[in-house]
Design goal:
The protein is an alpha+beta fold and 43 residues long. The protein is built from 1 helix and 2 strands. The chain has one domain. A two-stranded antiparallel sheet has the order 1-2.
Length: 43
């Protein structure tokens, strides 16, 4: 089992695409847990 699970949505302006990690997260725009806080930050 995983000891820690972190969803990295963005990391500065970097783009990373490896077998284990993709940044920005490919489905970030479909996750309310990401979109709603971002929309509040940029009002």
């Amino acid at each position: 089992p995983r000891t820690l699970d972190i969803d990295i949505i963005f990391f500065a302006h970097k783009k990373i695409n490896t077998k284990q990690l993709t940044i920005p997260h490919k489905n970030w725009s479909q996750r309310e847990s990401v979109v709603i806080p971002l929309s509040r930050m940029y009002k």
